[in-house]
Each structure stands twice: as C-alpha cells, then as structure tokens.
Amino acid sequence: MRKNRMLPILLAACLLVVFSAGAALAGGQVFQGSAVSYDEAKKILVLKNDEANLNKVDKNLKEVTFDLSKAKVGAPASPGDKMRVSYDMAGDKYVATKVMNVTKQDLRKSK
C-alpha cells in the first residue's frame, strides 16, 4: 500500500524536474532596441540600447552587437526599426537565437 501512495509524489517530482530542465534549456535573455546597422553577409546586427532600464545588459552600453550566425531571423532590419532579439551569452559575445522586426511585423498586421 505504501508504494501506491508514493507513486503520485514520484510522478509529480519527475514532471517538475522535466519542466524545470526544459525552462533552463530554453533560457536566454530578450533585448529590445532600435536598429543601428544590419550586415546580412557578416550576420551582425547592432541595436541601440533604447530601453536600458528593461534590457538586461550593462546600462552604460549605448549599442549592443549581436552575432546572428545561429539565429532565426524574420524581416531584415532597416536603421531605426524596433527589433526584439532573444539571445544567449557566449563569453562576452551576444549570440542571437531569434530576431524579430517589431516595426515591420506591426506594418504587416495593419494591412
């Protein structure tokens, strides 16, 4: 009988571990700012740190350069476009995983 009472507790513990590991693997940070430059060939995006109090980077950084070599990129950036980037840190490099052009996405929705 004791085994039957422990089974739900063990299942709950296993589910907790699985979901916690999934959240940790998804990880990453999100940065939002306006595009300064975008080099598609070099796979580099430079964003202005417009929202320094919300972005989790050094508040003294005026611009942040993202490596897009491993990123899924939506609509390309033009100077001034509002961009949202999901990224991970690799040493001192900001490595983007997903890039969304908020400006162009909003324009597409209004059509």
CATH topology: OB fold (Dihydrolipoamide Acetyltransferase, E2P)
Shape: elongated
The CATH level-2 architecture is identified as Beta Barrel
Binned, the helix content reads 25-40%
Structural class by SSE content: alpha/beta
What features would you describe in this structure?
The chain has 111 residues and is of the alpha/beta class. The protein has one domain: OB fold (Dihydrolipoamide Acetyltransferase, E2P) (Beta Barrel), CATH 2.40.50. It is built from two helices and six strands; from the N terminus they run αββββββα. Strands 1-2-3-6-5 form a five-stranded mixed β-barrel. The chain is elongated and about 60 Å long. The model is unreliable at 20-26 (pLDDT under 50).
Summarize the entry for a quick read:
By secondary structure, this protein is an alpha/beta fold. The chain is built from two helices and six strands.
Can you give keywords for this protein?
111 residues; alpha/beta; five-stranded mixed barrel; 31% helix; elongated
Topology, please?
Blueprint: H1 2-26, E1 29-39, E2 44-48, E3 63-67, E4 72-73, E5 82-90, E6 93-101, H2 102-110
Parallel strand pairs: 3-6, 4-6
Antiparallel strand pairs: 1-2, 1-5, 2-3, 5-6
